[in-house]
């Protein structure tokens, strides 16, 4: 991973951390842990699966998406944040087939499913609940079958896989999230 890519990831994490903690700045460290981890591992999953198929993949921040996240958070006093901080761009896609593109796209939301399960198993109280919910929302949003979201590529590759993963997110979304031990 190059210096420029690390800088793009760092700027994205800090910006979404600010946006998501605008309602309660004291929550900034917890937000960095939960939102930052969800976002970074989601994007790195795309990157490393693409690399495993022989493609070149790099994360790039999207300046307008970062500005939009902060602006929406500021305008709504932190009650609503839509974050589109950037994406992993895969180069050499001509060599990738539909299944490989689908699996690369699935890697991010699948990582969010795994992180949600990890956060649900931790006795960290509100941080656990927050981490679980953030990963459920991030993964489920990305699985919407609307281009350019991950779900559109997963559904184009395998509708049954898309439906199964989306249903898992729905099940998690409607489960009570325990606050654990504070």
Structural overview:
Helices cover 66% and strands 7% of the residues. It has one domain. The longest helix has 25 residues. It is globular. With 182 residues, it is mainly α.
Radius of gyration: 16 Å
Percent helix:
55-70%
Gap between N and C termini: 37 Å
Percent of residues in beta strands? 5-15%
Question: Which geometry do the CA atoms define?
Answer: globular
Mean pLDDT: 92
Number of helices: 7
| Main structural class | mainly alpha
Whole-number total of structural domains:
1
Main sheet: strand order: 1-2
How many E-type strands? 2
What's the helix-strand series?
A: HHEHEHHHH
List unreliable stretches of 5+ residues.
Answer: none
The major pleated sheet works out as: 2 strands, antiparallel
In a few lines, what is going on in this structure?
By secondary structure, the protein is mostly helical. 66% of the residues lie in helices and 7% in strands.
